[in-house]
UniProtKB/TrEMBL annotation, chain A:
The keyword Oxidoreductase applies. It comes from Chanos chanos (Milkfish). This is Pyruvate dehydrogenase E1 component subunit beta. Heterotetramer of two PDHA1 and two PDHB subunits. The heterotetramer interacts with DLAT, and is part of the multimeric pyruvate dehydrogenase complex that contains multiple copies of pyruvate dehydrogenase (E1), dihydrolipoamide acetyltransferase (DLAT, E2) and lipoamide dehydrogenase (DLD, E3). These subunits are bound to an inner core composed of about 48 DLAT and 12 PDHX molecules. Interacts with DLAT. One of its GO terms (molecular function) is pyruvate dehydrogenase (acetyl-transferring) activity. The keyword Transmembrane does not apply. Pfam families: Transket_pyr (PF02779), Transketolase_C (PF02780). Its cofactor is thiamine diphosphate. Its EC number is 1.2.4.1. GO terms for biological process: glucose metabolic process; pyruvate decarboxylation to acetyl-CoA. Keywords: Carbohydrate metabolism, Glucose metabolism, Oxidoreductase, Pyruvate, Thiamine pyrophosphate. Residues 33-191 form the Transketolase-like pyrimidine-binding domain.
Automatic annotation (TrEMBL), chain B:
The gene is pdha1a. One of its GO terms (molecular function) is pyruvate dehydrogenase (acetyl-transferring) activity. It catalyses: N(6)-[(R)-lipoyl]-L-lysyl-[protein] + pyruvate + H(+) = N(6)-[(R)-S(8)-acetyldihydrolipoyl]-L-lysyl-[protein] + CO2. Keywords: Carbohydrate metabolism, Glucose metabolism, Magnesium, Metal-binding, Mitochondrion, Oxidoreductase, Phosphoprotein, Pyruvate, Thiamine pyrophosphate, Transit peptide. This is Pyruvate dehydrogenase E1 component subunit alpha. The lineage of its organism: Eukaryota, Metazoa, Chordata, Craniata, Vertebrata.
């Protein structure tokens, strides 16, 4: 069954899967899967598993999704389960929450999270505060909404980086009985990642509220989420050549935050840098630093914890400016060396 | 025969009141009272409809007594809330419904308890018709653990099965209601959703977004605008370019209904429910009604309208008086019988108020509970980093 589904999705990948399955029956077959396809798989599997699940949003049906995340789903599930909405965010976000209150499990897609601002009242006042369930699927555009939604009790907020993250977290979000905001990074949709055999299973989920140590290290802890995790790993690879070993933590969940994993790491490495794409003030990094200060890991710090963040300006248009408004790999390397005083 | 029955029942009543037991008046029922009568009701203004609800309504004695009891309970409950608020036993927001009883009672008479309903913040009346008890409602207003939301919601956040509150953000409940209607259609149980909003909310953009989607997708949704002529302190003429709220749905058929007449509301609701259940999509009802109190307890309600206006509505259009007169004039009940219901209602309210003022407040360790549903217990940060509180689902 898994091989058949793969075949429908994308020719090249499917053929290689089938071949590998033929010749290497005993060893696990890893697979290259893009974040976009991982999200698609997650939704497909959950739509199949639970008939209360349905998807609504702009262009999710006949257009196959503005970013093609929902490609093929309308053809497979039809009008009842995959619903194209007019351009009325506040309205359809409210409808999604209402349907959830009445027992369905809607996936409400905002084309970009900027558009979700029109509906933020429904997300916060109707969904979060009303103790009912829904699941929110959306993309980041020119702003990181982790701090905005992460601020609010009653919401869960997840931020996947890899394809496995995307699939496992989205499935958990759909199965969760509470409102979950899923911060997908649009720039990551087309990036392929290796997906383990375990992750290819229909029952594969990643628990919400648990961070993952992507790379072990002993000199400094880098905590990040979403796209910046890749930057941290790249920076770590460069620094390793100079003998500096970074431990890279992928938060995966913004709220509730897994501070235990971060604390354990800081107690081992004695140095902390948070890395995020969002603005510095009142952000994810600010929250992490505050909690580390307030907790047992503080006594293990050999240098102040610092934050690497987006520049405190609205996103500029010109490419060169845009490139310089979010952390680059060199910014991370620079910050690590400053912190370690090398 | 009649005279003998009268004598007997008078004797019975006399002895019973000495014993303090309830008088059995049913001895008179079959012989004396009209079991049912037909009443003319006001014609509804129609929008995009060839025909409207019938212009006559049949009322049985049982129905009449039940509507009377419920409306009277609602009236007394709201007045008790007023009293408790002035005694500072109820705090915060409190929006009272007295004057509008015919709307809540008439709507419920036109649908089933298995249907769904959502409204805004003037919600105590609906909490009652949708299955809440006076005890639970008053205890919620006084913030006690016996309240319908365990004391954590207050006036604007009361819920029962198939009743989704109680919503504080003006207009936000309308898309929610359409979502509930979507679930009704999706689950194919022949249920519908009644989605209420006021004349003030009627100008909200999200309501028009909702009209569009409900109509496109033929959702079984009855939109009801309770037009009580004032959005807080702003009269409808000062707020809306078009005060024909029943037409504002544009492509959605609409009716304008006399919201002070419980029978008119009932017949219109039955008509609307039939429209929805037959798959024709949404329909809109405007109920013309009136609130005696100000917008909320902090509004005396006379800076933007005259006492004379309020008095005129009370004397000429009060919904409870209208029903009472109809029943008495058609020999469907006796004055004594209705007085008796009043006494019972008064007692029920007193008992409920007693409970609401003596029940303890929710325990402190309930503070962080009910953040999430069906989740393992979590820790919640208190006001400082050393205070960790527990939260269970």
């Amino acid at each position: 069954m898994a091989s058949l589904r793969c075949f429908l999705r994308s020719g090249r990948n499917a053929v290689s899967v089938i071949l590998r399955r033929e010749f290497h029956k005993t060893s696990p077959a890893a697979l290259q899967v893009t974040v976009r396809d991982a999200l698609n798989q997650a939704m497909d599997e959950e739509l199949e598993r639970d008939e209360r699940v349905f998807l609504l949003g702009e262009e999710v049906a006949q257009y196959d999704g503005a970013y093609k995340v929902s490609r093929g789903l309308w053809k497979k599930y039809g009008d009842k389960r995959i619903i194209d909405t007019p351009i009325t965010e506040m309205g359809f976000a409210g409808i999604a929450v209402g349907a959830a209150m009445a027992g369905l499990r809607p996936i409400c897609e905002f084309m970009t999270f900027n558009f979700s601002m029109q509906a933020i009242d429904q997300v916060i006042n109707s969904a979060a505060k009303t103790y009912y369930m829904s699941a929110g699927v959306a993309a980041q555009h020119s702003q990181c909404f982790a701090a905005w939604y992460g601020h609010c009790p009653g919401l869960k907020v997840i931020s996947p980086w890899s394809a496995e993250d995307a699939k496992g977290l989205l499935k958990s979000a759909i199965r969760d009985d509470n409102p979950v905001v899923v911060l997908e990074n649009e720039l990551m949709y087309g990036v392929p990642f290796e997906m383990s055999e375990e992750a290819q299973s229909k029952d594969f989920t990643i628990p919400i509220g648990k961070a993952k140590v992507e790379r072990q290290g002993s000199h400094i802890t880098l905590v990040s989420h979403s796209r910046m995790v890749g930057h941290c790993l790249d920076a770590a690879a460069v620094l390793a050549k100079e003998g500096i070993e970074c431990e890279v933590i992928n938060l995966r969940t913004i709220r509730p935050m897994d501070i235990d994993t971060i604390e354990a790491s800081v107690m081992k490495t004695n140095h902390l840098i948070t890395v995020e794409g969002g603005w510095p003030q009142f952000g994810v990094g600010a929250e992490i630093c505050a909690r580390i200060m307030e907790g047992q890991a503080f006594n293990y710090l050999d240098a102040p914890a610092i934050r690497v963040t987006g520049v405190d300006i609205p996103m500029p248009y010109a490419k060169i400016l845009e490139d310089h408004s979010t952390p680059q790999i060199k910014d991370i390397i620079f910050s690590v060396k400053k912190t370690l005083n090398v | 025969m009649q005279k003998m029955l009268t004598i007997i029942s008078n004797v019975l009543r006399g002895s019973a009141s000495r014993n303090g037991t309830r008088v059995v008046v049913s001895a008179r029922t079959y012989a004396d009272f009209t079991p049912q009568a037909t009443f003319d009701i006001k014609k509804c203004d129609l929008h995009r409809l060839e025909e409207g609800p019938p212009q006559q309504a049949v009322l049985t004695r049982e129905e009449g007594l039940q509507y009377y009891r419920t409306m009277q309970t609602m009236r007394r409950m709201e007045l008790k809330a007023d009293q408790l608020y002035k005694q500072k036993i109820i705090r915060g927001f409190c929006h009272l419904y007295d004057g509008q009883e015919a709307c809540a009672v008439g709507i419920e008479a036109g649908i089933n308890l298995t249907d769904h309903l959502i409204t805004a913040y003037r919600a105590h009346g609906y909490t009652l018709t949708r299955g809440g008890t006076v005890r639970e409602i008053l205890a919620e207003l006084t913030g006690r653990r016996g309240g319908i939301a365990k004391g954590k919601g207050g006036s604007m956040h009361m819920y029962t099965k198939n009743f989704y509150g109680g919503n504080g953000i003006v207009g936000a409940q309308v898309p929610l209601g359409a979502g509930v209607a979507l679930a009704c259609k999706y689950q194919e149980k022949n249920e519908l959703c009644v989605c209420l909003y006021g004349d003030g909310a009627a100008n909200q953009g999200q309501i028009f977004e909702t009209y569009n989607m409900a109509s496109l997708w033929k959702l079984p949704c009855i939109f009801i605008c309770e037009n009580n002529k004032y959005g807080m302190g702003t009269s409808v003429e000062r707020a809306a370019a078009s005060t024909d709220y029943y037409k504002r749905g544009d492509f959605i058929p609409g009716l304008r209904v006399d919201g002070m007449d419980v029978l008119c509301v009932r017949e219109a609701t039955k008509f609307a429910a039939e429209h929805c259940r037959s798959g024709k999509g949404p329909i809109l009802m405007e109920l013309q009604t009136y609130r005696y109190h100000g917008h909320s307890m902090s509004d005396p309600g006379i800076s933007y309208r005259t006492r004379e206006e309020i008095q005129e509505v009370r004397s000429k259009s009060d919904p409870i008086s209208m029903l009472k007169d109809r029943m008495l004039n058609n020999n469907m009940a006796s004055v004594e019988e209705l007085k008796e219901i009043d006494v019972e209602v008064r007692k029920e309210i007193e008992d409920a108020a007693q409970f609401a003022t003596t029940d303890p407040e929710p325990p402190l360790d309930d503070l962080c509970n009910h953040l999430f549903y069906n989740d393992p217990p979590i820790e919640v940060r208190g006001t400082n980093p050393w205070t960790k509180l527990k939260s269970v689902s």
